[in-house]
Each structure stands twice: as structure tokens, then as C-alpha cells.
Amino acid sequence: MTDVQQVTLMEAVPRRLDAAVEVDALRKEFRRRDGKRRRGERRVRVALDSVSFTMDKGETVAILGQNGSGKSTLVRLLATLLLPDGGTARILGQDIVSDARAVRRFVNRVSVEASFFKKMSSAENLSYAARYYGLTASQTRDEIPALLERVGFPHDRRDEPMENLSRGMQQKVALARALLTSPVVLLLDEPTTGLDPRSKLEVQDFIREIRVTHDSTILLCTHDLVEAESLAERIGILDRGQLLVLESADDLKRRYGAETLEEAFFAATGREFEADEDEDDDREVFA
After folding, report:
1. CA distance 51 to 172
2. Which residues of the chain have a pLDDT value below 50?
3. Three-state SS at 62
4. Nearest-5° angle of CA 148, CA 149, CA 155?
5. Is there a contact between 264 and 248 (Cβ–Cβ < 8 Å)?
6. What is the pLDDT of residues 48-72, one digit of tens each?
7. What are the phi and psi torsion angles at 63 (to 5°)?
């Protein structure tokens, strides 16, 4: 049995009372219509296949994977936006299915395609989100401008509709929105994809600040190798729905006799890191 197989076939993760995130044999399948089959038939695609890992409180873990590897599916499951087809996951001891409401109080999510009310301004979107989370106007009157300032959002553009803003500016608003509730666990799904170099560095610096100031546990799903290595204590490789390995960058390189993370990724998966899949995680038609 190879090293990759030994790591892939992980045993069930034992319960840990001090863990922030516990994932045990988590599985998700999608059934989609396939034009090549007879009308009405569906094909099952396994997006996550028995994924298991734990995260300590205050730890940052990066999950590397190509499009279609299952990164977004993992984030959406932990954020209680999808139901698993097998296995379990807990956030601070709360089950993502049976204790979903409690989990949502601990977790916030920033995705590659953040959703906003496009006709509303950044401040108006944050105010709406605050009301949704039960915060009053008096509680956020000073906090919202302060958050926008912390993420480097221009003061003179806070009244502009979101549809007029660049993707980088919108992502900064998404990060500010995530901090409104001081999340204990922050789920970041490709937070810097598509950003210009300056905005990318600003967002990465802000992620570091979040961890220090809020003592947050951060799961970062990305396909940026440099970002993963600079922000995370441990790095996982997710390939075709399977978590092949999860350890520090140095240990990853040592395991595969690699000088870079890119070489380690190739050794683990047998594929070049840049070669994306045709499908992107859970962005499918499913029933």
C-alpha cells in the first residue's frame, strides 16, 4: 500500500471535546441528469467521499484542490447549506444536521461568489445582515463603518450600489459581513480568487488579523498554493472528493520528497495542479 493510500484510508476520527471542527467520514453525492442517458435517468457523482479530519480551536487549515475536487461542497456542508449523505460533522461539539441552528451561531462563510442586494450599498447590505442576525441599529451604527475601514473599503464609495463595485471591493464587503457576528469558525471558499494583486494581499492580511483579534478557527479552501502555505498551519489535499493528506507544508514536502507544494500536489494526485476539472463542486443540476 502506498503512502497516499495509507493516508486516504483514514480511520474514524475519535470525539475530541476540545476540537473546533470534527469531520468523520463525511460523504455527499449529487444526482444529475445526463443527456447521454435515457430521458429521466440520473447519474450519481460523489462530491465528497468519506472525508475525516479535526481542527483545533484557533487553528487555520487550508484545503488545496482543483475545481471539482469537493472544496465548495465541504464548506457548504459545514455551513449547514447542504445535508450530508453519510458521516457526521460537528462545530464546537454541535452536529451540523441535528444542531444546525446552533452551528449557524458559531459559523460564518465567505464564498468565491458572495451574494448581495446589488442595488443596495455596502453599508446597507451590512445593516440588513446585522438585522438578520438579530443585531440592532444602535449596536452596529459605529461598528459597520469601522469594519469597512478595517478591510480597506474606500470611504467615498460606501453609498454606491454593490453592482457598481469591482469584485475585489465586493469581497472586502463579504469579509466585513462575516465579522459582524464575530464568528468562532470562519469558512473561506476561494476568498481571493479573481482579485487583483493588491486586493489579494489586503484580504490575506485581513485573514491574519481576524485570527489574531478574534481567535477564530479558519478553514480556507483555495487553489492558491502560496496563499495556503502563508496562511495555514496545516494543508490538506482534496482530490476527487477524497482527502489524501493533511499536515504542515514542510511535512507534505518531506512526505513526497518535494521541494514545493506544487510538486507535492503532483506526487499525491498524479495530476498537474493547474489542470481544472470540467465540473465545479456542487454547481450542478441535482435532484
Report:
1. 30
2. 1-13, 275-280, 283-287
3. strand
4. 85
5. no
6. 999 999 999 999 999 999 888 999 9
7. -110, 115
Helices and strands: H and E segment counts in the chain: 11, 10
Residue type, position 282, single letter: D
Residue reference for cell 478574534 = 214
A 10 A CB-CB count for 214 gives: 15
Report domain extents, the chain.
3-113+180-269
- φ/ψ of residue 267, rounded to 5: -65, -35
Question: In the CATH scheme, what architecture does the domain 3-113+180-269 have?
Answer: 3-Layer(aba) Sandwich (3.40)
Q: Note the pLDDT of residue 274.
A: 64
Instruction: Give which of 148, 99, 106 is closest to 125, Cα–Cα.
Output: 148
Phi first, then psi, for residue 72 (nearest 5°) are -65, -35
What distance in Å separates the CA atoms of residue 142 and residue 127, rounded to the nearest whole number? 11
Candidates 232, 210, 206; CA nearest to 64 is: 232
Query: What whole-number distance in Å separates Cα of residue 159 and Cα of residue 226?
Result: 34
Q: Are 173 and 163 in contact (CB under 8 A)?
A: no
Of the CA atoms within 13 Å of residue 128, those in its CB half-sphere come to: 13
* Identity of the amino acid at 137: A
> C-alpha grid cell for residue 180?
459582524
DSSP 147-207: HHHHTT--GGGTTSBGGGS-HHHHHHHHHHHHHTT--SEEEEESTTTT--HHHHHHHHHHH
State the angle between helix axes of 261-269 and 249-256 in degrees (0 to 180), rounded to the nearest 10. Answer: 50
Write out pLDDT tens, residues 186-236: 999 988 877 778 878 888 888 888 888 778 899 999 888 999 999 999 999
